[in-house]
Design brief:
Two copies of one chain form a homodimer. The two termini of chain A are about 35 Å apart. In chain A, helix 6 runs antiparallel to helix 13 and helix 15 runs antiparallel to helix 17. The longest helix of chain A has about 45 residues. Chain A is globular, with a radius of gyration of 25 Å. Chain A has about 725 residues and is mostly helical. At the A-B interface, helix 5, helix 11, helix 12, helix 14 and helix 15 of A face helix 5, helix 11, helix 12, helix 14 and helix 15 of B.
Chain lengths: ~725, ~725
């Protein structure tokens, strides 16, 4: 079963992607890094981020080493039975290194792009946008490029999806640590900085006197760039591997079963279907590249639209290019297989469309000109708590549309091409992940740029420009988030099917109590995992708060600006804390699946996975949307508050008029949001959007975001873990 | 297959129970109803509650009538195939009437007991406690008595568990409406009363000038007494029926499969196993009666302990009595069947023990002298939002222990006696439900008593006594809530198994995409249902708020107390709103299961059910415990706040001392809770616990409670619905 030459498309796309990433990096680096103070701040951020990554990678190194040995000596070699499992172990190592590399590359540019984007803002919106966008693109292209090159080469050499699975394990183990660790770091710093600095000492956002300011900015880089990068790297690789493994398994069985029509597979057909996921991803990468290249932001329109236009463009280009590649792939196939291939193309198209639809629905639930957010803002008339409750209700409600989207995509894909179709829908949804990561990484860069502009004292005009860019990042994020959650969901479903196929489980019967128990544990686990991570942030943030208070108390000159705050100490707390707090979640994530497998059997493990996938989906969408919608509702009400004050200053007739009365109602509405500690920022600094964002960020809203992402990342990582562990379990069970 | 004579035990227990209920009712009624003002207020409450129930029952009457016809003409008669389905339809009708009757009886006494308990408080804690306790016992005994008599007689006459299933359908359709409708009513009134009355006009809790005060008290009766009663009536009957149906199905198959040992069933054995659930419940009822009778509250100890002692006593008595009855039941059985019977006794014991354990864990997570609540209170140092987040995190964490409890009970019961064992564990857990309902109904009675004492101007001393009794209700509630959630979970699992058995589904394979989709929809549904109900409350409360404002604005004499507020109007709003807002949830609860069945098949329907059960469990425990723990944390911090003020008044050295500093830290901790609007109540009225309770009650905390109960009740009702609907679906599918 030779490897079809068309796989070269993916390899070439991967290489182009890396070349372009390097080129964009050079574009960014040759920009002006701004004045001395800016460079100093950027230097601190860079140093902090690198220190964190070094410590993190060192710990990960030991972990990876141990797991490498476990895989090498304890796992059975399923490709060449009876020999040492060296192929998979080495692929695992490459996957780990690849994920770290992608994270490192992206972050390395991120910490350079921030100050340059800030400086760009002095020239105008376009200059700032371009730097941030290219900076983000480096991350996007590095992630996809490294993943595609890794998958293609490993498959080319070993010709076994099971070896590629090793690569995927590597990506997963890094993602689990990078995303959770980065998340704990960034929230610790963020919460700490806001609680003491803003709430107690009335310092503005990003104030250089606040000892946690730099740590906060470092957090954006290690959490939102490096962490997110390794997370999507993991998803991307997992979706490809799941589809490849299924194709290989069906190839062995000689048939792909689907309600539409069963298709008997030939050897050549099997080899085409195995590489199809990789090739489609290659085409998707090319579509992303063209999309990124075509985006020409003119500086006049809303920058968020430019980002979304890139997404739509990439989608359309993918449809066309993947149709062309399907023609090439079908060369030499019989009629049945050819039509199956077209149906598979169809599933990838459906997957991508449903990704866009998911993005739209999460956009609907979080946009300030749509009913949910408006209603939440109005609910404020009835008190603080009603606001939160209202946000939660809409968050819960917002689970329904994406669930319908995923269910539709799943059932249509299954109808067309069986479980392989479901896997290919996931692949389709993630095909343009290069664009998604680019838009996502753009966010923390402009966020940092704004902070540097503030600390470099570039003036209000420049900060307003930076704010505008930052707001664009948020617009794009609503879409990319919906995408990411949907893709993760489909991917883990596909992984579940391929796991069952691999483990030889043909029935997972919910009427068997063992299976039901597995599902029960699975449904409960996201709750446990989220709770542990949020409590970890809380514990760690308390330490941060104490440290900041200590610095202010022991050295009053920090507050007057005469002496610099000790940044290193706060970065150190965030770094150490994030690693320490990872221990228990990691142990749980390794032991629970093993425990379920040993106690209740492998079928129960599949049910455990299904339970975790479904309940994880509900938690992820609910928390992510509740977060965003509350945040938006708060900005609306912030604007109302300002309107009242403005009228009281004598505008529109001043106090006592009907307009004033109306504005008071508006203010009453906005009032409850003040419990989040927003009022100081509002009165001090006008209504800059970023201000609100950060005033909120220390609070419920951001923590919910964190909640959301933990439940989101956890199932992806869990699935991978469970896969690894289940193989271990199988090994143990068969050997005893 | 004759009906074993031992079934008479259940019938007799049921009859004794009703006789005792009537006796307790007369005990309550002959107490002094207090002064004229108190009787007037109690009269308003009674009138409002009756009006609500009349309107509700009228609408329900139409609904029940339609469903009766559907069952009669459209459902196949599975007992006597080919004939009209009259047995099941009539049993359905009896179930509906029985549920309404139990609710009505309990509420009828509740609205009489409140003023008498208030008057009792003038004589002391014991007198007040006794009236409220006997009032609650009427509800507890009526629920269990009506249920047991209904089940025994129907089975005796028709000798078919499927006919008893009709009775259970009736209980479920009433519960869905009564619990949700009552819930919307009570929260609408509560939120409305607090938001305008307390927040805007600074009126104290239960102030007669507040137009929504009476509606609020009515809500306690229709929601917490009548609604809760029909809810537990439903659970109780469902657990019995599920076990009976399984026994009958296994009897037909001639074998009960269990990991411990398969047992071949004889005809006589089958008939014994079919009545065993009813007989065990009869024994449980006797145990409850003895427990209720034995409780002698002396007036000196903590009244909450007396309630809990009753629960423990009933549990121990159940163990002994059920062992005795097992000896009787085993007469005439062969060795194999006899030992199976003992194993089944064991599963019921395990079920009841795990119920107690669940109660303890929810007690741990919600007690103010335990770590979770203490930590939540301390989190307040870091800001408001951290408090909420912390409460949520512990709420999420608190899902784990009860899940482990249920899983353990389930697996051990399954090991001992297969899925029949699981069903019997549910029966065991609900065996002492008479005690549970008694303790639960005690709560709203003392809550009302307190309000009447306030409005009847009985003075601070009496109100403090009423507060003490109220606090006891809360202590008991933590335990009964854990119980109710666990029992509901096991019951619906058992129902799911019996449904599958009945529908002839032998495998529900999660690897089939149809089944996976069913599970997916099931997991999402609790989120949708909760969101809809909470949004309904919000919409309705907004109307209530407008009406209260209108009354105060149009007639200023209401505020001065010169003219009475218009209670009827607010009760009318709550009544109509609660019915109107039920329409969409009801339609969803009927159409979704039917839709899933038709589109994806009956196996998918089973998976749908499993998904809803598991995700409903997580939501119910999470929300209920987050609610309670936040509420308790708030009382702690309220105490801290008062400590500071007390020191500032010159005590313990006054301002500036170290003690004062420490108390300031305490106050900072308590501060964020003020966002809930507590500070007025605190400073105005000292630190009466009930004050806090109500200050909170309009807010997040109570709404979460509501959230919790909706997700809790919904799955029980859903299961019943799905059972009805699935039979419909099967009918449609087989006829086409």
């Amino acid at each position: 079963m030779a490897v079809p030459i068309i796989l070269i498309v993916a390899l070439i796309a991967g290489i182009i992607s890396i070349v372009l990433a390097v080129y964009f990096r050079s574009l960014v680096l040759k920009e002006d890094p701004g004045n001395e103070r800016m460079q100093e701040v950027a230097g601190y951020i860079e140093e902090g981020a690198k220190t964190y990554l070094k410590v993190q990678y060192k710990v990960l190194g030991i972990f990876v080493g141990v797991l490498f040995l476990v895989m090498l000596f304890l796992l059975p070699n399923m490709t060449n039975p009876g020999t040492l499992n060296w192929e998979q172990a080495i692929a695992y190592l490459i996957g780990c290194v690849g994920s770290m590399l992608a994270g490192w590359l992206g972050m390395y540019v991120g910490v350079k792009a921030n100050t340059r984007a800030a400086q760009g803002c002095t020239k105008g919106t376009k200059a700032g946008f371009d730097v941030a966008f290219f900076g983000g693109a480096v991350m996007g292209l590095a992630v996809v490029g490294v993943a595609l090159i890794g998958v293609s080469i490993i498959y080319w050499i070993f010709q076994s999806p099971l070896v590629v699975l090793g690569f995927s394990f590597g990506a997963s183990s890094i993602a689990l640590f990078m995303k959770c660790g980065g998340g704990i770091f960034t929230k610790t710093a963020d919460v700490g900085a806001d609680l003491v600095g803003k709430a107690e000492y009335n310092l503005p956002e990003d104030d250089p006197r606040n000892p946690a300011t730099i740590a906060d900015n470092v957090g954006d880089n290690v959490g939102d760039i490096a962490g997110m990068g390794s997370d999507l790297f993991d998803s991307y690789v997992a979706s490809i591997v799941a589809a490849m493994m299924l194709a290989a398994a069906f190839g062995v069985a000689g048939i792909i079963k689907a309600p539409f029509a069963n298709v008997t597979l030939t050897t050549i057909g099997t080899s085409v279907f195995i590489v199809a996921p990789v090739v489609f991803c290659g085409v998707g990468l090319i579509a992303s590249l063209i999309g990124i290249y075509i985006i020409k932001y003119k500086g006049s329109e809303e920058p968020g639209k430019a980002l979304n236009t890139g997404t739509y463009l990439a989608t359309l280009i993918y449809f066309a290019l993947s149709a062309v590649i399907t023609i090439f792939l079908s060369i030499g196939l019989g009629d049945d297989e050819m039509w199956l291939l077209w149906r598979i193309w169809g599933t990838s198209v459906i997957g991508l469309i449903s990704g866009i639809v998911l993005g739209f629905t999460s956009d609907y639930f979080t946009r300030d000109d749509r009913k949910p957010v408006q209603n939440i803002a109005h609910a404020a008339k009835e008190g603080h708590a009603v606001v939160i409750l209202s946000g939660f209700s809409y968050g819960l409600l917002s689970v329904v549309p994406p669930a319908i989207g995923v269910i539709l995509a799943m059932t249509i894909a299954f109808w067309l091409a069986g479980v392989f179709g479901v896997a290919m829908a996931a692949v389709g949804m993630l095909a343009i992940v290069g664009t998604i990561v680019t838009n996502d990484a753009y966010g923390p860069i402009v966020d940092n740029a704004r902070a540097i502009a503030e600390q470099g004292e570039l003036g209000d005009e420049v900060i307003r420009t930076a704010d505008k860019l930052d707001s664009a990042g948020n617009t794009a994020k609503a879409i990319t988030k919906g995408f990411a959650i949907g893709a993760a969901n489909l991917t883990v479903m596909a992984l579940m099917f391929s796991f069952a196929e691999e483990a030889g489980i043909t029935v997972v019967d919910l009427l068997s109590v063992n299976v039901l128990v597995g599902a029960f544990i699975g449904v409960v686990i996201p709750a446990l995992f989220s709770a542990l991570l949020v409590l970890a942030v809380q514990r760690n943030a308390a330490k941060m708060v104490d440290e900041i208070r200590r610095q202010f108390e022991e050295n009053p000159k920090i507050l007057t600006g005469e002496e610099p705050a000790d940044f290193h100490k706060t970065i150190d707390i965030a770094t150490k804390g994030s690693l320490r707090e990872l221990i228990i979640p990691s142990i749980i994530s390794i032991t629970v699946p093993i425990g379920v497998g040993i106690l209740f059997g492998v079928a129960s493990l599949v049910a455990f996975l299904a339970g975790a996938i479904l309940s994880g989906f509900v938690f992820a969408v609910f928390m992510s949307n509740a977060d965003y919608s509350l945040f938006r509702a708060k900005s609306i009400s912030g604007a109302w508050d300002n309107a009242k004050k403005w009228i009281e200053d004598g505008n529109l007739g001043g106090k006592g008029t009907e307009v004033h009365k109306a504005s008071i109602t508006g203010d009453t509405v906005g009032d409850p949001f003040k419990v989040f500690g927003i009022e100081n920022q509002l009165s001090m600094k006008g209504h800059r959007r970023t201000k609100y964002k950060h005033a909120v960020s220390s609070d419920v809203v951001d923590s919910f975001d964190f909640h959301g992402f933990t439940s989101n990342v956890q199932w992806r990582s869990w699935v991978a873990w469970k896969l690894t562990c289940s193989i271990l379990v199988q090994d143990i069970l068969t050997n005893k």
